[in-house]
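Holo model, S-adenosylmethionine. Inputs:
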Amino acid sequence: MKPKLLDLFCGAGGASMGYHRAGFEVEGVDIESQPHYPFKFYQADALEFPLEGYDVYHASPPCQAYSRAKNNGSCKDALGLIPETRRILIATGKPFIIENVEGAPLITPARLCGASFGLGVSGFDLNRHRLFESNFPILTSPCQHHRGRTIGVYGNGTNSYHRNKFGRCVTVDEMREAMGIDWMVRKELSQAIPPCYTCFIGKYLLAALHGGEYQPSDFFPERRCDTCDVRHPSN
Ligand SMILES: C[S@@+](CC[C@H](N)C(=O)[O-])C[C@H]1O[C@@H](n2cnc3c(N)ncnc32)[C@H](O)[C@@H]1O
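Output:
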């Protein structure tokens, strides 16, 4: 039987899809309705949702409180839910992951970058750094994107740096290709993490659950993931 993973703050399911591909039975919780979420879904406040009955937990609390936007003064009222999220996840006594943006107050997080997985479009690397705090070990490789040859995926259009480098705005289809996500609209894409990040982490999670140690080279001798068909970072 597959282990059960609960994805708190699931959005339209970028993280969930990666865990599904890694071999988990996934359910998601979000306070907003998520018509495109591909798995069993509960519309609820993640901090009040009953956590019994799951083997592992992932949480992506809203990042506005920590992202660069805050420094521009545009997200002054955003709540930082990370401390409370960590408190309830520790209380489960099970393996957990908390994902967020750079600048978020995570404890000794692993950092993943799109380019480390070979993600991108038209020869441009996907620049999308995300941090992953966990209560089990995760090994990653350093960021591998090429300076000046990157694109980003944002909700409010392509920023001027990437527009100048790419030569024009990135289309929604190009965003989908760069992220490895074909079921989301632009707003959902802008909030999502590429499924291959959590497919990668899911392999460590399975090792943590089964008391073993995950070595990416054991699973992917050619550094290519058998489930999400992208390159996985080596150690
Ligand atoms: C960064 S997005 C998650 C994206 C998702 N990890 C993915 O990869 O597609 C954060 C989500 O948290 C949800 N959210 C915010 N506050 C919430 C709460 N108190 N309970 C549940 N969901 C919440 C938002 O509606 C949003 O969909």
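DSSP finds eight helices and ten strands in the chain. The domain at 4-218 is CATH 3.40.50 (Rossmann fold).
Archived with the compound record.
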